[in-house]
Inverse folding.
């Protein structure tokens, strides 16, 4: 879809893509009848706003997360109670020595008092592990994972200087292991918000020293970057990298940082004269 990820809620809000039904997964209702969308708000919030019918799976393994997550049982047309484990991702088992070196180098670029957005993958996780000696960091990200937990518990992340929801870590979805899912459960210091808000460059740029740290697949000498595809093959879906890179570049003393190993595991250069039209691994 030729669209910025921050604009996707408009497809539903403006009826460009009409929704007959939304299938959602939620936490059990609280004593007031409110369920939580839990770990994943992103465009689901817009779907709930606009769908003619809402069908829910109530899963006791879904954490009750604060923010723009709550859906009252009266809004749900039909539901099924079915408990199953949430999807877990653990990149710590895949980290290489090169990833650790890059993580340390990137951490050196982050000033105390910065607001961070980190993408998904081994290198962003290594960056988080290398930030434990920093002070007064903030998180205003598209996603958070396990690495954010230890920084918040150790007082490295205070969310003191951010202007977008100061005092709270903000994101639009959470992906990691049970460690982060348990941490965010009923934690008022973590807010999960609509992606049209978290990924809006106008909101992102409000944070001084905004650092957007994202991984890429390939970069060429003209500055073109491949992050979603490998040649003609889509490697990932439409992401928020561009939203945050733009917002960080516009932020006062902000930094837009792309991280990439110089070679693939097969020794093929990721730094090329022109971005590839072929597929490699």
């Amino acid at each position: 879809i030729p669209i910025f990820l921050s604009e996707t809620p408009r497809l539903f809000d403006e009826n460009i893509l009409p929704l007959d039904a939304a299938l959602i997964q939620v936490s059990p209702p609280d004593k007031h009848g409110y369920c939580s969308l839990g770990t994943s708000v992103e465009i689901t919030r817009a779907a709930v706003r606009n769908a003619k019918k809402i069908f829910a799976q109530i899963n006791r393994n879904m954490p009750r997360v604060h923010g723009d997550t709550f859906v009252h049982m009266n809004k749900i047309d039909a539901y099924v109670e079915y408990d199953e484990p949430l999807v877990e991702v653990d990149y710590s088992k895949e980290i290489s020595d090169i990833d650790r070196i890059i993580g340390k180098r990137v951490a050196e670029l982050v000033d105390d008092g910065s607001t961070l957005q980190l993408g998904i993958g081994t290198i962003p996780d290594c960056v988080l592990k290398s930030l434990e000696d920093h002070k007064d960091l903030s998180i205003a990200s598209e996603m958070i994972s396990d690495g954010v937990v230890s920084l918040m518990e150790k007082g490295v992340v205070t969310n003191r200087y951010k202007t977008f929801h100061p005092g709270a870590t903000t994101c639009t979805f959470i992906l990691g292991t049970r460690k982060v899912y348990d941490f965010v459960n009923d934690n008022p210091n973590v807010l999960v918000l609509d992606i049209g808000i978290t990924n809006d460059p106008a909101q992102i740029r409000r944070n001084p020293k905004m650092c957007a740290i994202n991984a890429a697949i390939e970069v060429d000498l003209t500055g073109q970057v491949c992050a979603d595809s490998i040649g003609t093959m889509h490697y990932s879906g439409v992401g928020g990298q561009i939203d945050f890179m733009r917002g960080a570049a516009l932020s006062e003393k902000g930094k837009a940082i792309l991280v990439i190993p110089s070679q693939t595991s097969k020794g093929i250069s990721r730094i090329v004269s022109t971005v590839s039209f072929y597929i490699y691994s």
Summary: The first strand starts at residue 21 and ends at 26. Residues 91-259 form a domain with the Transcription Regulator spoIIAA fold (CATH 3.30.750.70).
